[in-house]
Amino acid sequence: MTSLPEIPGAPEDPLRTAAETMRAVRERCVWSQRITHRDLVPYLIEESHEVIDAVETGTRDDLREELGDLLWQVLFHAAIAAQDTDDPFDIDDVARTLTEKMVRRHPHVFAGEVAETPEEVLVHWNAAKAAEKRTRTSVLDGVPPGMPALARAQKLTGRAAGAGVTVAPASTAAAPASEAELGDALLSLVATARAEGWDAERALRERLRALEDDVRAAEAAS
């Protein structure tokens, strides 16, 4: 394994060394100096998908590397934020905020509450989350509009059910006669996935991988 770089003043802590490495890159690399939060978004999306691919199809080494690349994005955003003139924060502030939130959301671990099943854990989690989000006026608040459409549809059908609005699961495979009917059919399929506890986005990804295998096999045979 490659040894960690020598970063002046960095303590003997791999995470701290990574943060100090990022700070040095931000300060000394002319490309990194010009990058903004908005500039990093495409890289964050790409690295997130590479982690997903490593989880679903990669090796342990792949996963370790891709998690590191995703962590680098977090460190990069924090390094940019630390230089903000109006409202700066750094990676320690990010970690502190995260720790405080996770402690609040796990009262069965840190505050003497009891949760003996995953369902009971979710009760505590959702109660804590609801208390944190009192300013929200809709169950739809907090669902990112930039999520992939299938994943967002599955998230929204769950939120909608909580508000008493349900989408009927797909019952037939009738061919849509219009784009609007296609949208209805897709949403019904997503509702089916949610009802069955399936991940619609992952199901399509795995089917696409099978399609890619078929295409490559056909190309190799031609």
TrEMBL record:
Q: Which Pfam families match?
A: MazG
InterPro entries registered for this protein in UniProt? MazG-like_dom, NTP-PPase_MazG-like_N, NTP_PyrPHydrolase_MazG
Q: Which residues form a coiled coil?
A: none
NTP pyrophosphohydrolase MazG-like domain location: 36-110
Q: Which SUPFAM superfamilies match?
A: all-alpha NTP pyrophosphatases (SSF101386)
Q: Which PANTHER family match?
A: NUCLEOSIDE TRIPHOSPHATE PYROPHOSPHOHYDROLASE (PTHR30522:SF0)
Q: Please report the name of this protein according to its UniProt entry.
A: MazG family protein
> What lineage, starting at the top, does this entry show?
Bacteria, Bacillati, Actinomycetota, Actinomycetes, Micrococcales
